[in-house]
Amino acid sequence: MDGFLFPHFPAPKSLAQFALFRKVENAAQLRKRIIGAAALAGAKGEEERDAVNFAFIDAKLITSRLHLQTAIHQAILAFTQDSLRTKYVHSEILFYLNPTNNITEALRRYGISDTSTDMIVVRVGDASLPPSNAQELMKDVVIGTIVPFSELEQVTDWGAVKKYHKLNSEAAVRDLKGEEERIAIDRIVTSTVAMKSVMQ
Amino acid sequence: MATSIGSSSGPPSHLSPSLVLLQSPTCKPISQGAEARVFKTYLSPPLPTAAAGFNAASPPQVSPILLKHRFKKAYRHEILDTALTKARVAGEARALLKCLRSGVNVPSILMVDAQEGMLGLEWIDGHSVRQLLPGGEEEEDDDPVTADSGEDPLTPYCIDADTITQLIGAQLAKLHKADIVHGDLTTSNMMVRRGRAGTEVVLIDFGLSFTSTLVEDKAVDLYVLERAFASTHPDSEPMFAKVLESYGKGLGQKEWGVVNKRLDEVRLRGRKRSMVG
């Protein structure tokens, strides 16, 4: 279990807890469950929505801890200013990760797919809640292993990141190789997330 | 009952989060101009790991960020003020991203709150070119590079003034190749830091930048820098010549010929093309 603390946000939204899950077995069912929960009415619907009230992010498109932190920070900032473009702060994280303004595309690319095996699960909540609680709730819905976040470097699919951000012909990346290239990509991708609210 | 890790009350709710950020005890003012104030602070402090059951295996390094706050200007109408501030924050962020994508060394963007006029950038750990080249030292400096020891300020960076001017020229060439005009090139708006691949020059402060394909704008950009060199660093001609030499190499013979010719014209008439206004 890992987390970002943002003391400048109102207490109910000042802590983002997250975990990197690997060897996830139930991505397809999970996706169905999230979509189903949105359609359920009544008290049962509330309960079901609460159970899957996380951001489920496809880990292979995340380049670094700072990349994730920036997306979460900008999403909560939008929430506190009543300028959410999607319905919830968790979906807003996915929206911020995607370089275009197309919400469906954001959910499809950065959300989990039926074949996902590595995912980052995020819950934005109150800093006074014990983190062990969130971890139990995540484990209730995701069948997989929580690993240290540093394992992300084995997960990131740099080719896909380059494709979605249209970096293949950019001067900054063209002549670089290996570690240097990955650092340059990470800086561009993180900055793209940060400035999304003022994108053309 | 597990330990709570945040204050239950939280920050005052009437203030926007970006302004609360400025009131944090770790937030230190760096400098102030007519347009904005600049601070050094932390976006997300480290978690009190073990206490709250967080994984303490590899505590990530927390690095500072630079906050540029375009504060409210009371002399402007409020609606106009918000619109202008928003547009300027957006403009600066877009220019920075364009630079990043074009391979120009600039700080990466870490937060944007256009509503409040806040721009959060990567903290560049180093010194300005102004501080490192001869003659530029006597700014109001709380962090003098040479502590009266007479030691060469360039020693920690393992390079000489020649290399700095070369690096500057190379960055400017990349900038202009991407059709970005900085608008306020001075030796204070360039930082020198030790990067992963050796010492690098990083361009900062894109508050006056704009996109242009015009030779005129690029030549004026260089002219402004030439004047800045001349007024801050004694005997700057050979230094600036080195900048231009490396700029020309980076830009390519053909384009450099055109820009150089225009630069000569600008030198004769000053940076304003027309004398109107």
TrEMBL record, chain A:
Query: What are the coiled-coil residue ranges?
Result: none
The main location class comes to nucleus
* Record key words, sorted: Nucleus, tRNA processing
Q: Which InterPro entries match?
A: CGI121/TPRKB, CGI121/TPRKB_sf
Subcellular location(s): the record lists: Nucleus
Q: Name one Pfam family in it.
A: CGI-121
Biological process terms in GO annotation: tRNA threonylcarbamoyladenosine modification
Q: Can you cite an annotated GO cellular component? A: EKC/KEOPS complex
- Top-rank taxon: Eukaryota
Family the entry assigns = Belongs to the CGI121/TPRKB family.
> What NCBIfam families does this protein map onto?
PRK14886.1-1
Describe the function of this protein. Component of the EKC/KEOPS complex that is required for the formation of a threonylcarbamoyl group on adenosine at position 37 (t(6)A37) in tRNAs that read codons beginning with adenine. The complex is probably involved in the transfer of the threonylcarbamoyl moiety of threonylcarbamoyl-AMP (TC-AMP) to the N6 group of A37. CGI121 acts as an allosteric effector that regulates the t(6)A activity of the complex. The EKC/KEOPS complex also promotes both telomere uncapping and telomere elongation. The complex is required for efficient recruitment of transcriptional coactivators.
Stated name of the protein: EKC/KEOPS complex subunit CGI121
The species this protein belongs to is Coprinopsis marcescibilis (Agaric fungus)
From TrEMBL, chain B:
Which keywords describe this protein according to UniProt?
ATP-binding, Kinase, Nucleotide-binding, Serine/threonine-protein kinase, Transferase, tRNA processing
> Which Pfam families does this entry report, sorted A to Z?
Kdo (PF06293)
**SUPFAM superfamilies noted in UniProt:** Protein kinase-like (PK-like)
Is the keyword Nucleotide-binding in the record?
yes
Where do the TM regions start and end? none
The protein's GO terms of the molecular function aspect are:
ATP binding; protein serine/threonine kinase activity
Protein kinase domain residues: 24-277
| GO CC terms of this entry | cytosol; EKC/KEOPS complex; nucleus
Superkingdom, natural source? Eukaryota
Cell membrane is among the record's keywords: no
Swiss-Prot/TrEMBL catalytic activity? L-threonyl-[protein] + ATP = O-phospho-L-threonyl-[protein] + ADP + H(+); L-seryl-[protein] + ATP = O-phospho-L-seryl-[protein] + ADP + H(+)
- One biological process GO term for this chain? tRNA threonylcarbamoyladenosine metabolic process
Give EC number(s), comma-separated: 2.7.11.1
For this chain, the family text in UniProt reads: Belongs to the protein kinase superfamily. BUD32 family.
Question: What is this protein identified as?
Answer: non-specific serine/threonine protein kinase
